[in-house]
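Bug report (template v2)

What were you trying to do?
Predict the complex of my protein with adenosine-5'-diphosphate.

What happened?
Run completed; filing so the output is reviewed.

Input:
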Amino acid sequence: SSILEIRNLRKVYTDGTSALQGIDLQVQQGEFIAVIGPSGAGKSTLLRCINRLVQPSEGTVMFNGMDTTKASGGQIRKLRREVGMIFQSFNLIERVTVLRNVLHGRLGYMSSFSGALGLFSKRDIEEAMHILHRLGLHDQMYKRADELSGGQQQRVGIARALSQQPLLILADEPIASLDPVTSESIMKHLHTVCREDGITCLVNLHQVDVAKKFATRIIGIHKGSVVFDGPPEQLTDEA
Ligand code: ADP
Ligand code: ADP
């Protein structure tokens, strides 16, 4: 069944930039989709419209039965709990431990930063530790996030998103600041955990080779419009 259905999505920023010019997309649960296109094509705006970091100018975004373009404050908070985000610059809380970063994913960013771990339930802590094990980060749990390498930090980013038990993960250029070997490892981790947990994933990439290797479907965006939508093997060089 469709988890995401986007119709005629348009975004014109306040400075007049037309970033999305009528996007139509249907996404089935469990798809692992790479969104590709040159810088400025509108990939980031598309992801940001889905979780309402950006307010669309026109169109509908049905997510799990809700039109998110009309969501109120409370519905937007619910939406953001159901949609995990992964960022190019990781966006971790740098001065707290890896474990605590993951706990904040699970409990929301409103929970206290400074209190002892005792504020979290035993079950929450065990679940966070389990997720860190899955991402090979069990030895890094008590390190500060900013002590880790870029690849390790992005694995924490994946762990934090997973800890929300999201229906959908949106990853905005998650490997753009990593070297090729680390990039591949991150994509492998992301792909594996999404498949294991049945999570739908949209990942923005500018590396076509990486997109072809991991995605089950590729969406090509150019100047705010979809110019390709199909399986990786149908993507030819001119697309
Ligand atoms: P909105 O139209 O959604 O209200 P704004 O124009 O207020 O968006 O911009 C939101 C943020 O994006 C601001 O911090 C602004 O500096 C930044 N921004 C503005 N122009 C660009 C751009 N061309 N590319 C990326 N970010 C931009
Ligand atoms: P991509 O992720 O493919 O690089 P973006 O969605 O970031 O593309 O940007 C699409 C277009 O919208 C670009 O022309 C960009 O400069 C512009 N843009 C992005 N964010 C803003 C903003 N907040 N305000 C104004 N223009 C923006």
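What did the reviewer find?
The mean pLDDT is 93. The helical segments are 43-50, 73-82, 98-107, 122-134, 150-163, 180-197, 208-214.
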